[in-house]
């Protein structure tokens, strides 16, 4: 455990509200190493993302950062250590295109090359599970911190998704979050707000994730203040119209403590499952 998943765009690219960030990666890797953390990449839906550009970008990442001691490699069931890439909004690209890259017989295949890796697709709707399997992905994650927002982010669907993954040799990676409120940037989205209930929402999500015995649990997210999913230390603060939510009556680091508590619980339970 202890893996940071970094939102990543190719050099010179960024989302419409941000700056290019690839040049920050070396600094983040160095700091991660200092604190005994690993780093992997959340590949964003950059312009013209397809089988060819993905091949080049995966090659770029592994060539440039793969030698760093903080670069994450996941131990697979066959004992190989492979890089791991989360692919955000993977469903916007057709399964046929992904299959070129991700299946052994694909025209752009990355399989059994020095750039092979575990590729994890975003599952939003139930039907995506079949597309993900057909595409040649190695697993799926659910990303959204709002229970009930999508099929994938609804806790009550995790057991059947895990069963589907188990029977198709895929990893199921449920994503948990501490709550959700993005009305400062999406005023119309009030119905997707989820109250933190003094940490209970976060604990409920972890509890639901542990029930399906996943190999990996992902946390969305560390510092999305504008979506109210931050878990790092928070004190009362406002800027202009925006009031940032704090964790009162709890201490500023209550969510880091909860994260530690559930990580330890998860580790202990995993030892039991594997016996």
Task: Provide an overview of this structure.
There is one protein chain. The protein is α/β, with parallel strands linked by helices and 275 residues long. 31% of the residues lie in helices and 15% in strands. It has 7 helices and 12 strands. Strands 1-2-5-6-7-8 form a 6-stranded parallel β-sheet. The chain has a two-stranded antiparallel ribbon with strand order 3-4. Helix 6 links the parallel strand 9 and strand 10 (218-219). The model has no long low-confidence stretch (mean pLDDT 94).
In short:
With 275 residues, the protein is α/β, with parallel strands linked by helices.
Q: Any descriptors?
A:
15% strand, 12 strands, transmembrane, Glyco_Hydrolase_99, globular, golgi apparatus, alpha/beta, EC 3.2.1.130, two-stranded antiparallel sheet, 275 residues
Strand content: 5-15%
Unreliable stretches (pLDDT < 50, length at least 5) are: none
N-to-C order of helices and strands: EHEHEEEHEHEHEEHEEEH
Taking the sheet with the most strands, its summary is: 6 strands, parallel
Q: Give me the side-by-side strand order of the main sheet.
A: 1-2-5-6-7-8
Q: What's the multimeric state? A: single chain
Helix content: 25-40%
- Compute the number of strand runs: 12
The rounded distance between the terminal residues' Cα atoms is 19 Å
**Contiguous helical run count:** 7
Radius of gyration: 19 Å
Main structural class: alpha/beta
Shape: globular
GO molecular function, one term: glycoprotein endo-alpha-1,2-mannosidase activity
Protein name: Glycoprotein endo-alpha-1,2-mannosidase
Enzyme class: hydrolase
Subcellular location: Golgi apparatus membrane
């Amino acid at each position: 455990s202890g893996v940071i998943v970094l939102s990543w765009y190719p050099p010179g690219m960024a989302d419409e509200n941000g700056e290019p960030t690839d040049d920050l990666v070396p600094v983040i890797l160095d700091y991660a190493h200092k604190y005994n953390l690993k780093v992997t990449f959340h590949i964003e839906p950059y312009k013209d993302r397809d089988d060819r550009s993905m091949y080049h970008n995966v090659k770029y990442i592994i060539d440039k950062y793969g030698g760093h001691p903080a670069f994450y490699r996941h131990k697979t069931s066959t004992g190989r250590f492979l890089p791991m890439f989360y692919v955000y909004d993977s469903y916007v690209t057709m399964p046929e295109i992904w299959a070129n890259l991700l299946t052994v017989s694909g025209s752009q295949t990355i399989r059994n090359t020095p750039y092979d890796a575990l590729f994890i697709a975003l599952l939003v709707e139930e039907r995506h599970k079949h597309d993900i399997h057909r595409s040649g992905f190695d697993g799926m994650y659910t990303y959204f911190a709002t229970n009930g927002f999508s099929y994938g982010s609804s806790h009550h669907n995790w057991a059947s998704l895990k069963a589907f993954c188990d029977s198709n040799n895929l990893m199921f990676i449920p994503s948990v979050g501490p709550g959700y409120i993005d009305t400062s940037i999406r005023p119309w989205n009030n119905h997707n707000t989820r109250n933190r209930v003094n940490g209970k929402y976060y604990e409920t999500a972890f509890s639901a994730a542990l029930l399906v015995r996943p190999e990996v649990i992902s946390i969305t997210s560390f510092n999305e203040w504008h979506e109210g999913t931050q878990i790092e230390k928070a004190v009362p603060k406002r800027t202009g119209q925006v009031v940032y939510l704090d964790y009162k009556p709890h201490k500023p680091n209550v969510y880091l403590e909860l994260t530690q508590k559930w990580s330890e619980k998860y580790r202990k339970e995993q030892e039991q499952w594997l016996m």
